[in-house]
């Protein structure tokens, strides 16, 4: 039941005010700062999404993913033996096999993520989106990053958006799915909120 979506209201001045306050919060310093930065590295998807990507580009990216911090810096922090890697390597579906094979040969278990579902524009027929997702999973992607059809948001087709995301989730099978909302193209914070809620409800 998505009828409540039309009643959503976002207090933009309050959001802007809160965002300004966040910028003034004090950050951690010293060893705590180093620990937080190292933790942030482990949450990063190291990504190449260029039209001229080649197997060798992806191989270099995978090496960087396994060794994201210089060894001398890790030794200075006594973290050289902690296995610090990035969270994932993200590529287009056509490059997933290259990344999977390179990481396997390097003996590391960094997951490969793949953008799909018509990334970046989302202007792709649904059948094509679902096929692209299934192929990326078949090639070895353990995470799929879909992009929504912004036109469904801008025209208020909330049921259609829900169904599209639900079908994408089903096509992922066992792979983890993230939904890219392209918030700068959704027109309003209310639309961002609605699209976020629908993405979560759709799985």
From TrEMBL:
Catalytic activities: 2-deoxy-D-ribose 5-phosphate = D-glyceraldehyde 3-phosphate + acetaldehyde
Pathway: Carbohydrate degradation; 2-deoxy-D-ribose 1-phosphate degradation; D-glyceraldehyde 3-phosphate and acetaldehyde from 2-deoxy-alpha-D-ribose 1-phosphate: step 2/2
Keyword Lyase: yes
Enzyme class: lyase
InterPro entries xrefs: Aldolase_TIM, DeoC, DeoC/FbaB/LacD_aldolase
Gene Ontology MF terms: deoxyribose-phosphate aldolase activity
EC number(s) recorded for this UniProt protein: 4.1.2.4
Keyword tags: Lyase, Schiff base
Family: Belongs to the DeoC/FbaB aldolase family. DeoC type 2 subfamily.
Protein name: deoxyribose-phosphate aldolase
Gene, per the UniProt record: Dera
